[in-house]
């Protein structure tokens, strides 16, 4: 299954959701790949730590997804397949194709060369090598998010219980439906993931209830707000390994079970 985690708004937990669902998949014995398309490289750093941090006086982590895209802009006779850009992580069955800030610099070149289907074709070749593929995206509807939507089978939408997020949600869903209609008939919205949920606060509860009343595909369970997520980020250790018995971890486990059951 190829899933893209997408929201045009920043700070809604795309990378955290991507990595933790992928880590649970891998912990359950599935061969799992994370593809990081965000130039901020958060998912890459979450899984690989300092090696994925780009600094001026430090060698970049190679190979990376920026190099995969950049090779299509040269006149080399043969491009390397996407499989050669995969890195192992410290966690069994979990692999990552790391991002690179270079993605920002080459985006307009890729657009002008009409490379929007390149990622889809490359991931098709990896389908039989991995049981689950999770794609993290930048907080914008741009070349890379559109490439991911074209390459994916399911779309997960994080929602952080904010009034501005709700207004943006409708535009986001329209973009996904338009992509499905124009580019990828196999794509569907798998569900809306309620993130950083505070059940004792009236506004989040009200917003979630209204989304459900509208018939939108809100997934259960919601993911709680917890400092353990920040600890997990700092340690570069997904929750299933850092705090397997924590409430938030168990919510992620239950959410992955929901997704696995729906996909079966």
Features of this protein?
264 residues; alpha/beta; Rossmann fold; 7-stranded mixed beta sheet; globular
Account of the 3D structure:
With 264 residues, this protein is α/β, with parallel strands linked by helices. The chain has a single domain (2-263), classed as Rossmann fold. Helix content is 44%, strand content 12%. The protein has helices spanning 14-27, 42-48, 65-70, 102-112, 118-126, 143-151, 163-182, 202-213, 228-235, 239-242, 247-263; strands at 2-5, 32-36, 87-88, 94-97, 132-136, 154-159, 188-194. The protein has a seven-stranded mixed sheet, sandwiched between helices. Strand 6 (154-159), helix 7 and strand 7 form a beta-alpha-beta unit. The chain is globular, with a radius of gyration of 18 Å.
CATH architecture: 3-Layer(aba) Sandwich
**Mean pLDDT score:** 94
Low-confidence stretches: none
What kind of assembly state do the chains in view correspond to? Answer: single chain
Whole-number tally of structural domains? 1
Number of separate strands? 7
Globular, elongated, flat, extended or rod-shaped: what is the shape?
A: globular
Q: What is the name of the CATH superfamily?
A: P-loop containing nucleotide triphosphate hydrolases
| Portion in beta strands | 5-15%
Tell me the major beta sheet: 7 strands, mixed
